[in-house]
Amino acid sequence: MSAASCLLTEDQFRCSICLDVFTDPVTIACGHNFCKTCITDHWDINVPYACPNCKKVSYTRPELQVNTFISEMAAQFRQSAQQKASRSSEQQVSKPGEVPCDVCTGTKLKALKSCLVCLVSYCETHLEPHLTMSGLKRHQLIDPVENLEGRMCTKHDKLLELFCKTDQMCVCMLCTVLDHKTHDFVPLKEEYEGKKAELGKTKAEIQQMIQKRQLKIQEIKHSVALSDKDADREIAGGVQVFTALKESVERSQAELIETIKEKKRKTEKQAEGFIKELEQEISELKKRSTEVEQLSQSEDHLHLLQSFTSLNTVPPTKDWTEVSVRPPSYEGTVVRAVAQLEETLSKQMKKHFRIDLKRVQQCAVDVTLDPDTAHPDLILSDDGKQVKHGDVRKALQDNQNRFDTYVNVLAKQSFSSGRCYYEVQVKGKTHWTLGVARESVNRKGVIIMNPQNGYWTISLTNQNECNARAGPDVRLSLKFTPQKVGLFVDYEEGLVSFYDVDAAALIYSFTGCSFTEKLYPFFSTGLNKGGKNSAPLIISPVNHME
């Protein structure tokens, strides 16, 4: 063997069919040698009987002659190769999840490359012919993959080499002239690069979605913290008020605290639900991100293209843009609970009202009047901050937004979420109506102002009486006629509150309202009454209480 090995190489003892060292070598009539099993199988499916090497044809099945010399030499080369493989097989043995060598008999070694021409995966030893033999060097090698048969066109049994952009599928060369004759084709690699770039964009989009949801979690947690702070502050105020009532108001105090805590629990439960949903979506997005990352790193063109459609879409998620957890409004809670104890708690209530008003003043917004909604008898200031009733009707073009019967006007600004507060000076007037109205309210003809018709207002009548237009009207018992009215709206809480700013007192609250449209600040000056009610309504800057 030592002398022979100096003159002969292992490549000279390889079967040209299986590309492995001969097993039971036989010689056919033309003189070429093959493994007995290889040539037998080849002729079982190929008639006439041609030599795989020289293509010499025989129409009768040739007799196979055992080649003793080649058999002995091949056995020695095989033994040498097995000894060489055994020295390094500890690290090369195929493990679960790795692609095994298709040629190895017995213990399967880990494949280093797969051949797209042979449709076989090779270990280091069996790969050598593809690296040294000129005929095999032209074969296309890729990182080892399983199911090489899946790379063949099932209809034409040809290698999938092109991508049909028309049908978005991988095809063989025959497909281009038969089933996909008029379609648009590109090489697999070209489409692979494009799809890989799209996967990169998808991954970036998913990462951005994850970041947005992480920020939303922080926002929700911050809202919960604000809710806790507001709840603690309100509970402390309630305890301070009800302490003075001793035994007679213990039940009211407990109900107040429970109401506030229930709102707090509801806010926390809502936040926990949102956070759980967000974390679940983040988990799904991270999972998809990992899958996209793995696919984008794959050099397996076919695998990427076949998996692209299922992984290039973002998992269905909820639109969190408008989702938020807003701390519930506690304004007026204590006031309503202790209204019946007004005489006993007048001082405590005065203190609480000041705190309450100071808090809602933090929600101050800028409000200006909308001339397109003003009744023709009204006179608006240039800055849109004042309105009064005039004695002469102006010739204005009518439009669907303008009030035509009552001397009303809306603001330009609207509210569809959150909290807002503004103040209106009513000093010197004998009649006025203030509040908010939904966008779709009737503005023509006779108007009945109540919540059922989309108006949440209070009015001062000529008899110096103040009424809440609650349908039916609620007469309000006030010690003094307000000179400046503050209006607070909490859209989500369904709350509209009116304050006497100078007295730091609550006038009235509409509670449990269901808002489904935009709300607009509403103003009605009342008639001039020969100059008795000529003073304007003035939208005043908010001077925050100390």
In a few lines, what is going on in this structure?
The protein is of the alpha+beta class and 546 residues long. It has helices at 2-7, 36-45, 68-92, 124-132, 134-137, 173-177, 188-243, 250-296, 301-311, 333-337, 346-360, and strands at residues 25-27, 33-35, 49-50, 57-58, 65-66, 113-115, 120-122, 141-142, 162-164, 169-171, 185-187, 378-380, 386-389, 408-410, 419-425, 432-438, 455-460, 466-468, 474-476, 484-490, 495-500, 505-510, 519-524, 537-540.
Distance between the termini: 107 Å
CATH topology of the largest domain: Jelly Rolls
Q: Characterize the overall form.
A: elongated
Helical residues, percent: 25-40%
Strand content: 15-25%
Placed side by side, the strands forming the largest sheet appear as 12-13-24-15-20-21-22
Mean pLDDT: 85
The domain tally reads 3
CATH architecture of the largest domain: Sandwich
Poorly predicted tracts of residues? 1-6
Structural class: alpha+beta
Work out the radius of gyration.
44 Å
According to DSSP, the number of beta strands is 24
| Highest-level CATH class of the largest domain | Mainly Beta
Descriptors:
546 residues, alpha+beta, Herpes Virus-1, Jelly Rolls, six-stranded antiparallel sheet, 11 helices
